[in-house]
Amino acid sequence: ILNVEQSPQSLHVQEGDSTNFTCxxxxxxxxxxxxxxxxxxxxxxxxxxxxxxxxxxxxxxxSATLNTKEGYSYLYIKGSQPEDSATYLCAFYSAKTSGxxxxxxxxxxxxxxx
Amino acid sequence: NAGVTQTPKFQVLKTGQSMTLQCAQDMNHEYxxxxxxxxGMGLRLIHYSVGAGITDQGEVPNGYxxxxxxxxxxxxxxxxxxxxxxxxxxxxxxxxxxxxxxxYFGPGTRLTVx
Lengths: 114, 114
Fold this sequence. Notes:
The structure holds two protein chains of two kinds.
Chain A: E1 5-7, E2 10-14, E3 19-24, E4 30-38, E5 45-50, E6 56-59, E7 62-67, E8 72-77, E9 86-94, E10 103-104, E11 108-113
Chain B: E1 4-7, E2 10-13, E3 19-25, E4 31-37, E5 44-51, E6 54-57, E7 64-66, E8 76-78, E9 87-94, E10 104-105, E11 109-113
Parallel strand pairs in B: 2-11
Antiparallel strand pairs in B: 1-3, 3-8, 4-5, 4-9, 5-6, 7-8, 9-10, 9-11
């Protein structure tokens, strides 16, 4: 069983704060790392798929970095807004995974207070 | 495009009843999958399909059956519902095997088994 760990579990910030969270995954046999944004009562929406060590992706105020050698990815949100409040999921795919499945972390729940 | 659709949105079953959760996508995606989401746990893969006529088990397949007779549809059948199957179920699709493409999720089905 491959473990994907996300920290912190939850985070409360004020509007305008910048924040970041971590996704840790096994560094061997890395294939892809996904980030999703999941708002309450909606379905997860893709933010990024990252496949190369050193990858950096950006979408508006949200960016992500990837370190496959040490097995972690950071998601950054610059100048958080209330509409950024959501659970942020990462998911890891290993070339060694039997059944070819994405393994999801439990997510980081972000609340941005106005 | 409607994307990924799921029906019903909510369902209450009694222990021992059977039912089928419907999932359809209109993006011509080959890869489709079913996840369940439980409190304190990440999304867990139940079954997946890499194309019409091909299905395989995921991490938690017991108590569920799937079939894939067309590219568009991927129904999930609960054979004899149990309270442990109370969960939120998400169907997802993507273009590629190998998980270098994002997953597109349906809106979810909230199932309660009494």
